[in-house]
Amino acid sequence: MSDSRDQSKVLVIDDEDIVRRSFCDSLEDLGYLVLNAKNGSQGLSIIASEQPDVILTDLRMPLMGGVEFLKQCQEAKFDIPIIVISGVGSMNDVVQAIHLGAFDFLTKPIRESSLLQATLERALNQVKLKRENENYQLHLERLVEHRTRALHESNQELAKHKDDLEQLVDERTQELRVVIDSLHEAQGQLIESAKMASLGRLVAGVSHELNTPLGICLTFITSLEDKVVKFEQDYFNAKINKDKFESFLASTRESSTIVLNYLNQACELVRNFKLISVDVSNDMKREFDLTDYFNSVVRSLSAEIHHHQVEITCLAKQKIIINSYPGIFSQILTNLILNSLTHAFSKESVAKITVTLDVADNHLIIKYIDNGKGMSEETKQQIFEPFFTTARGTGGSGLGMNIIYSLVVGNLSGSILCDSAIGKGTAFTIKLPELL
């Protein structure tokens, strides 16, 4: 096991001593440094002193339960992934926990340690990506500050030594070229980090969405197994009559139909996930139906969309088949939607997003419109600048719209325009060379 300073800290909060010790033992065996608390109040004290990397918490606990603990963490703006683990919470509890910022939800008992480890690794990867982006931003800001100060000093020197003007200009020009190259390289790395963060968010969303249909299937299969055992006992004890037999057939038929429907739903989720995840993680060019593909992207974000209660519609005046890079289109639409969810809507608003697709004058036109609160003229002018954000204190990195601009202009050789006003929503118009 590595030195504790190099280990990830995991805080386990559960009021049942046996359950808590079991989690702690399992996590220590996996190589994590484990902290524990009996309730949310103790957990808040440990967060203040130990600063864990990930938190596992039960929902139902005395003194301070999981829901109240999540509210306290949200108010304190703790930037720590919180995984809710409960065996008695209702679906309303789960929805409320996700609404309060929970990273994921797992159901007790967890029989496969690999599921717990995979969830923890996704949370830790998210923490790592956030820290890398923060470090990149700090590095670039310091670099720009340093170069600005150097140029200011150079200007003062130039005023004193006009004879050395040409040489100094050449030297500073070369230095600036090096800086610009470094900035371009850093921007490329940030785009790759954002791509992996998008894939991680997709994995988390799909895994959460799969919990519901698979959990229902497990419940009905277990119930059906009990009915089969009881029917078998009645059969061997000669207690089967016509009514019991017909009741057993009806119950079996109903259970199998429900299980089949929910398994088909789970299969559809997996198909969407496989399609989108492969496109996000590579740069393969292929032919695809853009409308169907955008609808698949929207379905892959169903957890985020349900969390914010927003209606998203994709419309096309005609069938649009293009030969391009689907992963780029997935990133563009995902970032636009997440940008709207983060900045555009209040809790009271009836949130709507409409995406329309059309082909005109040998160009592909994508219009993205939300009915959110809109933005000021000053914000609109800076929307595509790197590291510009109006949500710095709540997790905004200022990279989402800059990445969209880079993908549209740099990768697809197109253009993107923003039209917005306070109280009138926001519209983005993307114009691309025809890809039919």
Describe the model:
This protein is α/β, with parallel strands linked by helices. The chain contains twelve helices and twelve strands. The chain has helices at 17-29, 40-50, 66-76, 91-99, 113-160, 165-236, 242-281, 290-300, 302-308, 326-343, 377-382, 400-411, and strands spanning 9-13, 33-37, 54-57, 82-86, 104-107, 286-289, 310-316, 321-324, 351-360, 363-370, 415-420, 426-433. The chain has a five-stranded parallel sheet, with helices on both faces. Helix 7 (242-281) crosses helix 10 (326-343) and helix 8 crosses helix 10 (326-343). The longest helix is centred in the middle third of the chain and has 72 residues, at 165-236. The termini are far apart. The model is unreliable at 1-5 and 392-396 (pLDDT under 50).
Features:
436 residues, alpha/beta, 5-stranded parallel beta sheet, 12 strands
Q: Order of strands across the widest beta sheet?
A: 2-1-3-4-5
The N- and C-terminal alpha carbons lie at a distance of 55 Å
Number of helices: 12
Strand content: 15-25%
Overall pLDDT metric: 80
SSE string: EHEHEHEHEHHHEHHEEHEEHHEE
Shape: globular
Helix content: 55-70%
Task: Sketch the major β-sheet.
Answer: 5 strands, parallel
Structural class: alpha/beta
Number of beta strands: 12
Rg is: 27 Å
Can you tell me the residue ranges where pLDDT is under 50 for at least 5 consecutive residues? Answer: 1-5, 392-396
